[in-house]
Amino acid sequence: MVEYRMPSLGADMEAGFLREWRVKPGDHINRGDIIAEVETQKGIIEIEVFDEGIIGELLLKIDDKVPVGTLMTHILTESEAKTGMKVGEKEEEKVPPKEAEIEEKEAKVAGEAATPPPAIPTPPPIPVHRIRASPLAKRIAAERGIDISLIKGSGPEGAITRKDVEEAVTTQPRPLSEQASYDAAQQPTPEKSTTDTMRMAIAAAVSRSNREIPHYYLQTKVDMSLALAWLTDTNKQRSVKDRLLPVVLYVKATARALEEVPDMNAWWDNGLQRKKDIHIGFVVSLRTGGIIAPAIHDANKKSTDELMKDLSDLIPRARAMRLRSSELVDSTITVTSLGDNTVETMFGVIYPPQVALVGFGGIKEEPWAENGMVGAKPVLTISLSADHRATDGSTGSRFLTELKKYLNQPELL
Amino acid sequence: MNDKQTIKLTYREALKQGMLDALRNDDRVFLMGEDVGSYGGAFAVSKGFLKEFGPDRIMDVPLSESGFTGAGIGAALGGMRPIVEIMTVNFSLLAFDQIANNAATLLHMSGGQLSVPVVIRMSCGTGRQLAAQHSHSWEPLFAHIPGLKVISAGTHEDARMMLQPAIDDPDPVILFEYTAMLNMEGEIPADIQSVDISKARVRREGSDISIITYGSGVYKALGAAAELAEAGIAAEVVDLRVLRPLDTATIVASVSKTHRAIIVEDAWQSVSISSEVSARIMEKCFYDLDAPVERLCGIEVPMPYPKHLEEASLPQKDQIVALVKKIVNYG
């Protein structure tokens, strides 16, 4: 019998919502099967199992929010299932802690980072996010710059072995920054690992940007009440997997604003060269370090649903470094969102030959004065880094104003 | 070995020839033990010795392990090269104080002045259904003690050749022989002159997994490796031979090559030779491991009397094959 617990899907995850069970008690499951969908700050994650067996009693209800490590179900062997073994007898594990408790904990963690939060009795977290790999497999992956988190293990309980890594070496392509490195003079030395190579390529790109591009920076704030209300509303009509995340609105609003202010959608190459198509480079952080900004093609022409689909497709592929070449080089502007963390504002470094980068911070509740009244609103800070050779502050300001307009009228998107 | 001249002999005969050589080579060497003289040894290993060497050198002793082992240690201190035979390892516990507190410590206690060049032989492991008090595998107990050298004759070659270097060693050596193997026939090179007692030996080379073992595990592991070869798995068999001090370098070289290891021994698993080998693998070649180290050891029960239960209590060839397949086929 294996205890299946709420996995940690990232170091910052405290708790997750169970959004859907994909199995019912008595179902036979194999390694790699998806048994549930769990929603975190990062969206809805399909939860895989690494064991084979029979699903026992489901101990969580749909939309339960429970801390990482909470028992979700048991995976039984054939004989255990046959003998009708009852599972989950331990009462304290069966009952998930009250949501208020979790909220309180989160609030404390967020608000009082300086003082240690009081110990709240939760089941010991099971480090499900920890990658099961043999030491040799990890060593080889590190040496060759392979992202081991993307490899499916063939060993006991899904452990990744040398063979799995060696197969991955032949299938995982080199990262974007190496392929698309515009600065041929900065070619990495061959003995460096891929991670080092990517770091060096990023170093070269940002150094050149900082050296050559006279940046100017603008910032604005948007009351996101309307946008979030619109999202909640539209998501109600959607199945769990089709739900939209705020980032889709950022991309779409940026694309629409660029239609209005085309000077921002351009490359600088001996002068400003406007681009007809709007391809938004979306920054994806890689787990091994480094970033990739694959293009979302024709973002202005796509519906929010199509964009959501694009993102759901693009981000995992970016992390797996399985991008298409067009996605590596076509971008006409860069969008970066650090909203998962506590950052409010980021002033980015423009990715040449583009002329602008839009940064979205996290949505944070703030006092907001409007019409002589002060209220608490969910506020998003948007920043713009722009190339002063290509545009002036007034153009940038116009762009941000348009962007803000669309976020205030999400139905227009 | 095929292209060389070999001699076929039983394990018992190999032990006997080893002792004859030692007795003939050096007048200071003598054998003392229960029934080693008139009776010819409990296992007939010293049959005929009394006639050739006389009662001064083939010495029957009273049934007192502590007494005669102590006498042997004293003789070694006095310049002799005694071979003390403790009939079976089970009785060695009665001599344990002499071995652990005297033989193992006197070099240290005398500030390096007194060496104890004694060899203590003992027959080890299961025999023919000798049950819980006469079937022990005490190798781990002795291998625990600094000041001793502990060696294990898991092959005919070592049964034949290990005694002489043990006698030549200036420090106390515990030599484990295996009762269950006495009648087993084997081949050794005709021209073999000596073996070392400092290194483990790779008995069969392979690239997929290291089967690390000693004593009665060696032939089982070799049998398993032959069967695994038919299944396409190249298992390397490492015979530890020297249980103290362990030859870590040979273990590490093998595991670094194969990336997987199992350890096989008759002794109970907890706090055993395999525990130590496993720990050293983890310490010295963690980043070369592609699978957890696994162990096949004696089941932790007093040895049962019925034959089938006795067999079930010890690692067998089929279990080695099954475990190796499980580990290798996953990876």
Walk me through the topology.
The complex is a heterodimer of chains A (413) and B (331).
Chain A: E1 2-5, E2 15-21, E3 28-29, E4 34-40, E5 43-48, E6 53-55, E7 65-67, E8 71-76, H1 78-82, H2 91-94, H3 99-111, H4 135-144, H5 162-171, H6 176-179, H7 194-212, E9 215-223, H8 225-236, H9 246-260, E10 266-268, E11 272-274, E12 280-282, E13 284-285, E14 291-292, E15 295-296, H10 304-319, H11 325-329, E16 333-337, E17 356-360, E18 364-370, E19 373-387, H12 393-408
Parallel strand pairs in A: 12-16, 16-17
Antiparallel strand pairs in A: 1-8, 2-4, 2-7, 3-6, 4-5, 6-8, 9-19, 10-11, 12-15, 13-14, 17-19, 18-19
Chain B: E1 6-10, H1 11-25, E2 29-33, H2 49-53, E3 58-60, H3 65-77, E4 81-88, H4 96-103, H5 106-109, E5 119-124, H6 139-143, E6 149-152, H7 156-161, H8 163-168, E7 173-178, E8 185-189, E9 201-204, E10 209-213, H9 217-230, E11 235-239, E12 242-244, H10 248-258, E13 261-268, H11 273-285, E14 294-298, H12 307-312, H13 317-330
Parallel strand pairs in B: 2-3, 2-4, 4-5, 5-7, 6-7, 10-11, 10-13, 13-14
Antiparallel strand pairs in B: 1-8, 6-12, 9-11
Question: Could you walk me through the main structural features you see in this protein, from its secondary elements to its overall organization?
Answer:
Chain A is an alpha+beta fold. In chain A, strand 10 (266-268) and strand 11 (272-274) form a beta hairpin. Chain A starts with a strand and ends in a 5-residue tail after the last helix. In chain A, helix 4 (135-144) packs parallel to helix 5 and helix 9 (246-260) crosses helix 12 (393-408). In chain A, the strands form 5 sheets. In chain A, strands 9, 12, 15, 16, 17, 18 and 19 form a 7-stranded mixed beta sheet that branches. In chain A, strands 1-8-6-3 form a 4-stranded antiparallel beta sheet. Chain A has helices at 78-82, 91-94, 99-111, 135-144, 162-171, 176-179, 194-212, 225-236, 246-260, 304-319, 325-329, 393-408, and strands at 2-5, 15-21, 28-29, 34-40, 43-48, 53-55, 65-67, 71-76, 215-223, 266-268, 272-274, 280-282, 284-285, 291-292, 295-296, 333-337, 356-360, 364-370, 373-387. Chain B has 2 domains: 6-189, Rossmann fold (3-Layer(aba) Sandwich), CATH 3.40.50; 201-330, Rossmann fold, CATH 3.40.50.920. Chain B contains 13 helices and 14 strands. Chain B has helices spanning 11-25, 49-53, 65-77, 96-103, 106-109, 139-143, 156-161, 163-168, 217-230, 248-258, 273-285, 307-312, 317-330; strands at residues 6-10, 29-33, 58-60, 81-88, 119-124, 149-152, 173-178, 185-189, 201-204, 209-213, 235-239, 242-244, 261-268, 294-298. Chain B has a 7-stranded mixed beta sheet with strand order 3-2-4-5-7-6-12, with helices on both faces. A 5-stranded mixed beta sheet of chain B has the order 9-11-10-13-14, sandwiched between helices. The chains are: A alpha+beta (413), B alpha/beta (331). At the A-B interface, helix 4 of A face loops of B.
